[in-house]
Amino acid sequence: MEKTTWKTACPLNCFDVCGFIVTKENQKVISIEGDPDHPITKGKICGRGKMLKDRMYDPRRLRYPLKKVDKQFVRIPWKQALDEISERMLEIKEKYGPTSILHSYDYASSGLLKELDQRFFNFFGGMTKVEGSLCWGAGIQAQKYDFGNSHSHGVDDLQYSRTIVIWGRNITTTNMHLYPFILEAKKKGAKIIVINPIKNGIAKQADLFLPISPGMDGNLALAMCKVIIDHDWYDHQFIQDHSIGFDFFKQQLEAVHLDNISKEINIDREMIIQLANWYSLNRPTTTFLGLGMQRYANGGNTIRAIDALAALSGNIGVAGGGVNFAHRAVGESFDWAPLLREDLRKEYRVFYRPTQAEEILNTSDNPIKMMFISRTNLATQLPNVSRTIQALENVETKVVLDMFMTDTAKQADYVLPVVSVFEEEDIYYGSMFHPVMRYGPKLIDPPGEAWSDLKIWMELAKRLGLDGFWKTREDFFEMALRPLNKYGIDFQTLKEKKQMVLPIPTVAWADKQFSTPSGKFEFYSQEAMEDGHSPTAIIKKPIEIKDEYPYRLLSIHPAKSLHSQHHWLRQKEELESPIYLPKELAEERNIQEYDRVAIFNQQGRVSGKAIIVEGNHPKTIMMEEGFELLTKANPNMLTPIGLSDMGNGSIFYECRVFIEKVADEE
């Protein structure tokens, strides 16, 4: 049969959401390449995107519904699975109410219609739902206090930047298509500054790299604010016309002492002054924030401090400026209200994603009797693996939707096989980085009896009598795109053109009309104070390191996998996480390159081979996350459960450990 090629997009939950050209032959995908017509990704894709083909055709893929019987999974018909699940749902709802059912989901597989799992539970009358984020919750909440929302500049705006600060963000691994835009800006004369405990790929291109002490980013930002005010380098006009709370913020900065902060953050006093000068006088300065710096107990405060620095120095609402953390304007382009129907909830309860295991175990009022787990692998991704497994074991009935028998699926009572990308029609949009939206056609049929998530929810809705839940896919697409019709964007046009750019401003807050209660940038947030936080960014440290565990472990995003999705597709010899040690720490512990080492704390122990690196913070160990539990290389064996200071984020990086050499057989 003749080969055919199709334009579509990557469904992985990363910054880039690349444009794909997929080739199929004999009803089988034979290659995935980048689409040069995509205005941002421009024909380049990462290995994780190409490995989607390997995931589709892996022999371990689930093809039939499974039920656990006497601790073993057996194949059952879809009818039996859905009948039993729906009967259990009705029984629990009648006896305990809908909030005894927890829907735990994340964004492992994106796509507009993937969000309709929430519609299902809203039609059901409610549920316990997870909110907040393992990734960026504290930072988003912080920017809501400051700006009213978390919006970013378009990448084309980099051409106007004179200084580009990459703060806690490893773009070479997690945001590769930003990299060429930054290099192009550098060619035009922009200064590149990288601030990070880890000397990552972009640091090699930097004019200045600063290995800051982990969790001290906000205190550096406040020290720079102090310098800017003391030297009268701040933007008086912006402060006067477009902000509130400056005088209170200025007063709080009186407690900032550069000499003390300099020692704590591992950056010289003179360099703090130089950085402040560049921010204010070599502007416009744009800042790209990573997710790691807000995975501490002081994470939200850190982002508020950097927001304040950008506002103070005159870099908000101007071309070439901005604080780029999230790009929520993309997702907000769609009409979610009629899609999700949150108005139908009668009973509703919230658990937070980072702490849901503890909430399952400790909730005595209306405890969780049943869980639906979709688009996530909780057992490897939540902090403190042992507590996560304990929580899952504590729930009577667990239903997992997945393509594979993950560590989470192994804990389930029912495992329902779902389709992969290219096996269903959907719309993909780059909600974290760029405003390009792509149409994704169905190209092939799924193997065995795998169903789309939407079909599963539809069939359950029929059994539960949830009238009105179902519409056609085209109806859902048209409903979601309705606010965009005035810009000439509708489903048929998108389907014909394959991709369209959402009408989002290139410069965030260019009109200086912020979404805060005051309509201005808020150095002082009354809303934050009412929520129990400091009304303004303050000097705040991460949890103190104790002598017993003197090193900090950073569990970073892997280079060759999206969390846990690709690790196990790699060669067996690659399935051991390297443990990256700074040269100074290795010398202190008498560890040589490739020595087998173990890192441990009161929660657990993981092991791997030592890789010695130069330039990192001297007391910081680094591991990649996402490995299967059987590898004994998953750092979430060690990471703590808890919420960041502003409630919506994780504290993965508040992880203290010890390290030692071990025998090869461990």
Question: Which secondary structure elements does this structure contain, and how are they paired or packed?
Answer:
Blueprint: E1 4-9, E2 19-25, E3 28-34, H1 47-50, H2 52-57, E4 66-69, E5 72-75, H3 78-96, E6 101-105, H4 116-124, E7 126-131, H5 137-146, E8 163-167, H6 171-174, H7 179-187, E9 191-195, E10 208-210, H8 217-230, H9 236-242, E11 243-244, H10 246-252, H11 258-265, H12 269-281, E12 285-289, H13 299-312, E13 323-324, H14 336-340, E14 347-352, H15 356-362, E15 370-374, H16 378-381, H17 385-394, E16 397-402, E17 414-417, E18 426-429, E19 436-440, H18 453-464, H19 473-481, H20 491-497, E20 499-501, E21 521-522, H21 526-530, E22 551-556, E23 579-582, H22 583-588, E24 596-600, E25 605-613, E26 620-624, E27 656-661
Parallel strand pairs: 6-7, 6-15, 7-14, 8-9, 8-12, 9-10, 11-21, 12-13, 15-16, 16-17, 22-26, 23-25
Antiparallel strand pairs: 1-2, 2-3, 4-5, 4-17, 18-19, 19-20, 22-27, 24-25, 24-27
Helix pairs in contact: 3-18, 4-18, 5-13, 8-11, 8-12, 8-13, 15-17
